[in-house]
Amino acid sequence: MYGSGYSSRPQVLLEDLGEQFEGEIHCAIYRVICNGGGPNPTKMMYLDVPERTYMSFHYHLRGAVEIQDLATFISSAGSFAYIIFRDVRCADYMRWDMAQLSSSSSGSKLFWKESIAIIDNDLRSCIDSIAQCAPNGRLYDYGSSDTRDYYSQEENDRDLYELRFFFHHREVLTTSLPTFPQPLKDHVEDLMEFLQDTHGTLYAETDQLLSQGLVHRDHLEMLFCPNAVVVSRQNGSLSAFVLRSWPIGNSSLNLDCWYWGFDGEWFHRKPITKYVQRPLKNVVRVRDLEVFPLRFATEQEKTTLELRGQKFWSLRYQHLASYEGWDFKAEQHYVGLNERSEKEPPLTTCRSLVE
After folding, report:
1. Out of 14, 40, 56, 332, which residue is the most buried by the measure of CB atoms under 10 Å away?
2. What pLDDT band is residue 213 in, cutting at 50, 70 and 90?
3. CB half-sphere exposure, 142, CA atoms < 13 A
4. What's phi and psi for 117, nearest 5 deg?
5. Extents of the domains making up the chain
6. Is the pLDDT of residue 339 over 70?
7. pLDDT tens, 20-70?
8. For 236-271, how does the pLDDT look when each residue is reduced to its tens digit (9 = 90+)?
9. Residue 154 phi/psi, 5° resolution?
10. In the chain, what's the furthest Cα-to-Cα distance?
11. Which among 156, 162, 114, 155 is positioned nearest to 135, based on CA atoms?
């Protein structure tokens, strides 16, 4: 993580930190947000893991090696392809729920939210070319400021890649690795090694459960990727939707979706929010959830949805239709087209077929 000759907790602040990382492909930076009892939180960056420090009559999270100018640091290093940001808050280090989620790889009881900033243009273009969705939830408009990312620091954070993004894209990156030219191949390989070292155990456990049609309650979010089709069996009715953004929520996941709807004249993408309650059991069947990805549906369910979708889509234009017989109240009898007079307009409707 650190450059050659760099101790894990140096006591002297180096004048030019970037030079210590010359030749390194990546590094990790800890970004600490501290309210400090005031209205304007302070935001500081460190190269070492922040520790609990007593200062200004309060305990705060502070590191020993501070980065005061990120642009200068990156420029002086000169070789970074990507940077890992680990965002922590002073207010969270004593929370028991955060302690449960502490990063075990660091050996620290400190919880951080991790994301990756891609610096190298070729690496960014490579990743974006295989992306199935946006790299983070900030790029999706949820319509409410209440759902903004709790750890968001700057507007530029919209360019960061979340770790769950790479969970859904690691396979295609690994498969394509032999075809990449240098130095892009080295950069992608380094990124894959980093993900494996820090999250490989989690990925392997999740993959093993999913292969059995199971999922752990703590990793429910990893089931869902934007632009994927999800299936709902609410009240026994089978329905399919397209997931528009990354899921949000804690005890209940909110899935922002859309589906094709008919307003009586036109077909439109209609928004809808689906909910998945986090199970009480640690491990549950994916198909027992209120909503699950289409890949876990049976072949019969997929065929039913596909045929119904094709029928519905075929009605986007007007069709000539007629009905012969009594209406449902048995008050009016309709005649066929052959028996109608030439002066009577044909019975043409798409709405009746859709409804």
Report:
1. 14
2. very high
3. 18
4. -100, 120
5. 17-211, 224-299, 325-354
6. no
7. 888 899 999 999 988 765 666 788 899 998 887 766 666 778 888 999 889
8. 789 999 999 999 988 899 999 999 887 777 788 999
9. -135, 165
10. 98
11. 162
**Rounded CA gap, 187 and 123, in Å?**
7
Contact 44, 34 (CB under 8 A): yes
Q: Taking the model in full, what pTM does it have? A: 0.75
Number of alpha carbons in the 13 Å side-chain half-sphere of residue 42: 11
Two structure tokens written together for 210 = 């999913």
Residue 57 has a pLDDT of: 60
Residue 329 or 304, more confident: 304
Which tokens go with 270?
């209609």
**Span 149-195, pLDDT tens digits:** 434 444 456 689 999 999 999 999 999 999 999 999 999 999 999 99
Q: How many residues does the chain have?
A: 355
How many whole angstroms separate alpha carbon 24 and alpha carbon 73? 13
pLDDT band of 113, cuts 50, 70, 90: confident
Rounded distance between C-alpha atoms, residue 167 and residue 222, angstroms: 8
C-alpha Rg value of the chain to the nearest Å: 27
CA distances from 50 to 90, 186, 202 (A): 10, 30, 24
Q: Are strands 51-55 and 58-62 parallel, antiparallel or unpaired?
A: antiparallel
| Structural contact between residues 14 and 68, judged by C-beta atoms closer than 8 angstroms | no
User: Tokens in use for 282?
Assistant: 């640690």
